[in-house]
Amino acid sequence: MDQELLLKAQFLQQQAQEIEQNLEIIIQEIENLQKMYEDIDFLMKSKEKSTISTIGKGLHLKTQIESKELFVEVGSGVVVKKSPEEAKKVIENQIKKLTEAKTHMSGKLEIYHKTLESVINDIQNKEKEENKKVKN
Length: 136
Description:
The protein starts with a helix and ends with a helix. It is built from 2 helices and 4 strands, in the order αββββα. A hairpin with a 2-residue loop joins strand 3 (70-75) and strand 4 (78-82). The strands form 2 sheets. A two-stranded antiparallel ribbon has the order 1-2. Strands 3-4 form a two-stranded antiparallel ribbon. The chain is 70% helix and 18% strand. It has helices at residues 3-45, 84-135, and strands spanning 50-56, 59-64, 70-75, 78-82. Helix 1 (3-45) runs antiparallel to helix 2. By secondary structure, the chain is of the alpha+beta class. The radius of gyration is 25 Å and the shape is rod-shaped.
């Protein structure tokens, strides 16, 4: 059996698995952002003066809503005030960028799968040739 083809197939499989894992992370992040967008939309329309706020994983606190302005972390621990509309635009941009990355990675994954399929076919064809030689 051709070791070079086997190593190539193994490499392609590992790369495909890595891309699949990254795609799952991107898809989860898009879902989280869409949920956040919906939550901001709900906040904008709500007339409620109190709510339950999440302050950590599985930890919530009843809070009074004094203002609908949001505090958005923009990186390195820096927090800025944004209106709900501004925050929604930021989220829309993040979703757009992640969707583009998802599309790019999906295309790359498809290429890896097709190449892997081709290498597997090559391996199978070589095995058939070797079996014919052994029989003769």
